Amino acid sequence: MVAIRHALMASLCGALLVLGVSALAGLWLPARHGFAIATFQADVTIPLGHPCMGGGISPAKEVVDPLLLKGFVLTGAAKPFVLASFDWCEIRGTSYEKWQQVLAAAAGTDPSRVFVTSTHVHDAPVMDEDAEKLLRDMEASGAWKDLPAPDPRASVQVASVCWPQFNEQCLSRVAAVVTGALLHPHPVTNFGIGKARVLQVASNRRYVTPAGAVSYNRMSRCIDPVAVAADEGTVDPWLRTLSFWDGETPICAVHSYAVHPMSRYGSGKISWDFVGQAREDMQLAHPDVFQIYASGCSGNVTAGKYNRGDAGSKAVLAGRMKQAMEEAWQSTERHPLTAADFHSALMPLGARNTLGYTEANLHARLEKGVRPFERSEAAMGLAWYERVKREHQVLVPVLDLGTAQLVLLPAEAYVEFQLYAEELRPESFVMVMGYGESGPGYIPIERAWKEQDSNLHDWAWTPPGSEEVMHAAIRRALKP
Q1: Alpha-carbon distance 29 to 286, whole Å?
Q2: What are the helix (H) ranges across 28-163?
Q3: CB-CB contact of 81 with 74 (8 Å)
Q4: Among residues 461, 402, 391, which one has the least CA distance to residue 131?
Q5: pTM for this model (two decimals)
Q6: Over the stretch 104-150, which tens digit does the pLDDT of each residue have?
Q7: Contact partners, residue 270, CB within 8 Å, separation at least 6
Q8: Average pLDDT value for the chain
Q9: Triad 175, 177, 182: Cα angle to 5°
Q10: Which of 383, 131, 203, 400 is nearest to 408 (CA)?
């Protein structure tokens, strides 16, 4: 009998080595008919010298707050679901696909079921290896060709979007964190839904002056008295909280709100800004409940009306967000978790081809742009063009819990797309996250094109007409 037991153990160990660490974690999960959740967190703070906001502002000089990746793996459905929310500005193109693939492998699922989103803080990276490669290959000065790795000392003079080597380091480290988290899952019997109004945080970039003129210049920091006095404009006033429970015990809470999450930025002080601060304040207030924050569709929504950008703004805005999180948490209603279904739709967003933004225009700016960021932006636009030429389509995924749906939309979609998704399922709790695959940049509604939204001069790589393409994909994915 002893010999038999030893033989069985040896066989089992050999099988586990073949299956890998993810399979080992899977052996500890509840049976297929039950649900479980494993939460994970990793430090993904960029090194000093790394470009911030794709090279558009000062490179990283100081760490004020660490940049975190916080997420969960939900098991018990046909295949696991993964949510990963980064304190980064954006993740684009090949870099985005790498994160989906690595997290999927770690969790034992399909990449399509991996919801990767960024909070869109600006003193943080835009991870776009495709754009960085274009810069290395085509920079007019040729400086990148002789550098084995990006040189922080040259980051002011030489255009750079990101450091791919750093992304690779994060991929390896996070994969290990996820497989480790799967060794300690929590049973899940219920999910919770709650929401609360956020007061004095969000305002639309668009406002109408007393003279009746339309303006789009209410940015994240605003001291123009006319813009400050104007109405908030179109916003989604609700912060939504989706939570997971084991009976009476809460395990994880995901909060989402649609606003550009910047109070004071641009000087190279790495920060999770006011939304990250509110999340971490909630973590301190509820230490046994894992707290995650995801930004909603806020391409055209900022804190501008309520943010002067002074030293105290971050704490004030974080306090207002924290209050809404607490109110949403207190209003939570629990429902039995009996199903976790997956729906999705592919979306053929095209490439912008308007006057001044053709592929040829972008190539010229890449090769001859005077400012480094001019070349970086051109590279990001061209990277999206290349994906469109390869007939790439953006996936719109939905985690459907029956009376609640978690939806991920791409890039800097305008808030109207979030409101549209919510209106499609008025009987349900629809939580919409933005900043999924971010290669397209701004995705505006048609009115913004007609009114010549000043934010669409750059960082906007999809063509007019994309509103209906987005609507059609959202309808297919949500199945109203």
Answers
A1: 25
A2: 93-107, 129-138
A3: yes
A4: 461
A5: 0.91
A6: 999 999 999 999 999 999 999 999 999 999 999 976 555 444 444 44
A7: 45, 46, 52, 60, 62, 63, 64, 65, 66, 67, 123, 124
A8: 91
A9: 100
A10: 400
